[in-house]
Amino acid sequence: MDNITHSVVGLGVGELVQRSLPPEPDDAGQRTRHRLLLAACALAGNFPDLDLFLTHLLPAPLGYLLNHRGHTHTVLYAVPQALLLVALLWVCWPAARALLRRSAHARRGLALAVVFGFALHLGMDFLNSYGVHPFYPFDGRWFYGDMVFIIEPVFWVAFGVPLIMAVPSRAPRWVLMAGLAAALLYFLRKDYLTLASFAVLLALGIGLAALRGVRAHSRWAMALALSVSVAFVCIQGAASAVGRSQVASALQALDGGTRVLDVSMTAFPAQPLCWIFVSVEANAARDRYTLRRGLVSVLPLLPAASCPAGLADPAPSVALNAAADVRQYRQVQGSLAALRQLKESNCWFDDWLRFARAPVVENGVATDLRFATTPRGNFSTMPVTRAEGAPCPGGVPKWDYPRKDLLGGA
């Protein structure tokens, strides 16, 4: 997820932890604990992304692909990060240090805020199609949630509105609320949101603001925000599963001899009905693997034009089934033997395959088809011909190959 989302959710959960603990006996201690728990949860919710400073340890694009969402995004390495964060808060915040020395409630709250912050970061990064490998070094596999878009305004509204309403001064409240509204309008103008999604988000924000307005205690609003977010993720997960099943059925009907190995599902913001899919198929008898990129609608009556155009592929699509709810933008085929030979002969490509879930090799360039139309271009692209004869990069993390099934593994 993006760092705005990590921050907003961290602040919201920190507020919920603060409101769930017995109050401190003095107002100064209560104010310090409030600030401490919000800061701790928000910082813990962003701490793993400090691995962006490690991306320069490997040449591009391997540095970003293999070191971002790398070791700092594992359960094992979350422990020293949490200890470092607590130590920094202790050393740099004298008022918080004094409070922690005398208050068991503050110590328990800090522990909960830090644990929740790191758990939320790993859990929320799991939700999209980029993936995480949280159990390394015990298990190097990538895990993909394929549920939520990497920038999700539902979380901004669900947690942001109650947080803004809790700001004591009226002027900052209006400024922050205007900023949130402007962000949603920007998404709408760029066709990242449909008008229906925008209306639902607006209704959710008004409802949360009204609830916070009639209750001085923000615990209820934060609890509702958390409930809405969990319900949204569950809806997205169910819709993703339905869409994946539709794609797999359509592909099997096209070619009964193919084996569907994977269907990557990428969501649109606040839109559970439309999905970009990337399928991976293999036919060992024909020495062929096939990747397809397309759009699936989990509501058959919903036309593709109703999906957010700003994040959909610009190329024309063709229907893959009679219902036309599975449509293809692009198809790429390759030789399994050639893919495996390139892996064995080119160490750069071998390292790149430790990230690629949907590998495409065309004209001497390797790309992951999941990221074919991102606003900043396909950041996974790597020329494989440039690497021929070049020294192999050192210090490459040994994540499992996502496409071990194409490479001859189990």
Written account of the structure:
This protein has 410 residues and is α+β, with helices and mostly antiparallel strands. It has a domain at 1-126. It has 12 helices and 8 strands. It has helices at 3-20, 27-44, 62-67, 75-92, 94-102, 104-126, 153-165, 170-189, 195-214, 219-254, 336-345, 347-352; strands at 259-268, 271-283, 288-297, 318-319, 326-335, 359-362, 365-368, 382-383. The strands form 2 sheets. Strands 1-2-3-5-4 form a 5-stranded antiparallel beta sheet. The chain has a 3-stranded antiparallel beta sheet with strand order 6-7-8, with no helix packed on it. Strand 4 (318-319) and strand 5 (326-335) form a beta hairpin. The radius of gyration is 23 Å and the shape is globular. The chain starts with a helix and ends in a 27-residue tail after the last strand.
Offer a concise description of the structure.
The protein is an alpha+beta fold and 410 residues long. It has twelve helices and eight strands.
SSE ordering: HHHHHHHHHHEEEEEHHEEE
> Roughly how many Å apart are the termini?
30 Å
Mean pLDDT: 92
**Unreliable stretches:** none
The major sheet is characterized as:
5 strands, antiparallel
Structural class: alpha+beta
Number of beta-strand segments: 8
